[in-house]
Amino acid sequence: MYEEFYGLTERPFQLTPDPAFYFESITHKKALSYLGYGLNQGEGFVVITGEVGAGKSTLVAHLKQKLDDRRMTVGEVVTSALDGEEMIHVAARSFGLDVEGGDKASALAAIELFLHEEARGGRRVLLIVDEAQNLSIGALEELRMLSNFQLGSHPLLQTLLLGQPEFKHLLAQSDELEQLRQRVIAAHHLEPMQPGEMEPYVTHRLEHVGWTGNPEFASAIWPRLHKATLGIPRKVNQVMNRLLLMGSLEEQSMLEVDMLDAVIEEMSGDASPEVQEAPQRARPDRNLPASDAIAKARTESAPAMTQADTAARKKGLLDHQIEAIEGAFAQRDKHMAALRREVEKLAAAKDSGGALPEDIDQRLSAIEQRLDDQERSLRHVLTMMIDYFESTGTREAA
């Protein structure tokens, strides 16, 4: 919708990973350096971790574009909670091997034969495992065993593990993963983007879809955007999508910080995107499989919801509705002032005896359309407020 208004060829802030939009932030540049070093070694494990939305998948998609598929065969696995035998079968299928109904030994034999054939053909083999924090200790051990396959002294398989911070902690702490740890030849944790990278990131994605300066952005937007998203690329994309949508609906060619604040408030609801200081994560239990250990740690880290929390949440919803109405009326006043100025210009032109603009009918139609849009917006917000009061049915809310 907004891409048409601003003359863009497509949406610049889609949430799905797309290597065409890859932005080399400081942390992604470091990650590529570690990946390049690791892949040049041709053996062992390379580990990349990062928060949800930090750009791990986009980084790997960009990496794959740089690889020569005549010299490198890549298999990809996006994991759920897999045990050891399941991991072997899934790895085999990622290379296109038919192991349906076969046992673990048959799957291993098929993988080994495949690796030998690739090596004889002059191709290296890389296995990319995403969401590695979901794997059990047994599955991780099976991946380590796959790295033992060799042709003479030449290793046949290299593995890239991608995971959330829990996986980084598990790999560092688990006694059962000591042998795998010793085979990690390169590792990097993707950090959030820096405040100074907000504007380059946004303009990079916009320029990729034909942006030529419309809309413009107030300079105060960038520190506010970083504060609201903590520099997480996916969160930046979410906020920017909504900001551009608001800008197009209000026909704005300059996006101001008050519009960004309105978007952030609108997106917040009961849980603000302006993330508060994260609680300390509970460490995974070393005696449990990885998936169970992570689930237990997440449960222990989650705060209990008290009656006070519930009451505060209800109060927050009421406050949010009131603020929405106040904001709608403020927007109405803003539009009305602009419309008055437009009408005054037309009246002044008529009084001075000058010719009325040729597009007078179009301008009057635009004024009527804006008034209609504003009325619909106010009616919608008021309806939401009435629905809220009727649904709660309490004297306190009334």
UniProtKB/TrEMBL annotation:
Top-level taxon of the source organism: Bacteria
Pfam families, per the entry: AAA_22 (PF13401)
Domain AAA+ ATPase: start-end pairs: 42-216
InterPro entries in the record: AAA+_ATPase, AAA_22, ExeA_AAA_ATPase_DNA-bind, P-loop_NTPase, XrtA-assoc_ATPase-like
MF terms in GO: ATP hydrolysis activity
Cited PANTHER family: GENERAL SECRETION PATHWAY PROTEIN A-RELATED, PHOSPHORIBULOKINASE _ URIDINE KINASE FAMILY
Protein name stated in the entry: Putative secretion ATPase, PEP-CTERM locus subfamily
